């Protein structure tokens, strides 16, 4: 059994098709063979030739233009990373399954005077290098960010000893992050994946070693807080599925050692992989940090409200 057949057997094809699944798969594979032959990105001058091939292969003009529009939005025809068609398809399938799982989770009720609470863990070198412990020691960071972004937040950081003993913590006041996205700004983002991707491309213009990697990093920064917004969380994964450099990492673990399946951008400068629970497909964090909890708190410094 070849790699493509094994993949199709393991992971069902993406949902929400406009065409019957078999016909959609044939068209997709035909297009990807043309633009990713031997795993090499197609130079820009071939754009018109790809269009002519589609239009002369018996594909209706309106359908061909729709397929090409989807490719253009994802940046496949730009000089992106050398990722094979099979790798791209596998990442797209997994991201679609993750998006479906996100759709089924409940949304949080949030008020402007509350705080978004996040707890992450990972090696202290990633976010708590000042702690008086070894470079590979685990650290915990709790953040409280004002929902509306208009009030100061709080960061509480502590080391996690190997024996599980108690330690003191360090508190730091947080000003509004000009490069961050507040919860209310997240709620204003479009939840249509195509429009969302277009928005993210516009916001990251001129950033990153490649524009696509800058979008990948932007999506990754939003994933923890977007867990409170299932519609947006799902749309972020569907938008990521359109990036040309996404690949699956079969065996990986988050920053706390929890095993899972991963997704990364091929050749990422930060070597960052998103990690998901292999059963529930819940977002666990990245290979650097583990997302332990995301919730809503009434006051900075207080635990999140449950129920």
General description of the model:
By secondary structure, the protein is an alpha+beta fold. It is built from nine helices and nine strands. It has helices at residues 3-10, 21-35, 47-56, 61-74, 85-103, 183-187, 193-203, 211-226, 230-240; strands at 115-123, 138-146, 153-160, 170-174, 246-253, 259-265, 273-276, 283-286, 289-297. The protein has a five-stranded antiparallel β-sheet, with no helix packed on it. Helix 5 runs antiparallel to helix 9 (230-240) and helix 7 (193-203) crosses helix 9 (230-240). The N and C termini lie far apart (48 Å).
Short description:
It is built from 9 helices and 9 strands.
Which descriptors would you attach to this protein?
globular; 9 helices; 307 residues; alpha+beta; disordered N terminus; five-stranded antiparallel beta sheet; four-stranded antiparallel beta sheet
Give the helix/strand layout.
Elements: H1 3-10, H2 21-35, H3 47-56, H4 61-74, H5 85-103, E1 115-123, E2 138-146, E3 153-160, E4 170-174, H6 183-187, H7 193-203, H8 211-226, H9 230-240, E5 246-253, E6 259-265, E7 273-276, E8 283-286, E9 289-297
Antiparallel strand pairs: 1-2, 1-9, 2-3, 3-4, 5-6, 6-7, 7-8
Helix pairs in contact: 5-9, 7-9, 8-9
Helix content: 25-40%
> What is the terminal separation in angstroms?
48 Å
Task: Assign the structural class, choosing from mainly alpha, mainly beta, alpha/beta, alpha+beta, or little secondary structure.
Answer: alpha+beta
Tell me the number of strands: 9
Low-confidence stretches: 1-20, 34-80
Mind summarizing the main beta sheet? 5 strands, antiparallel
Helical stretch count?
Answer: 9
H-E order: HHHHHEEEEHHHHEEEEE
- Overall shape: it is globular
> Widest sheet: strand order?
4-3-2-1-9
Rg over CA atoms, rounded to whole Å, is 21 Å
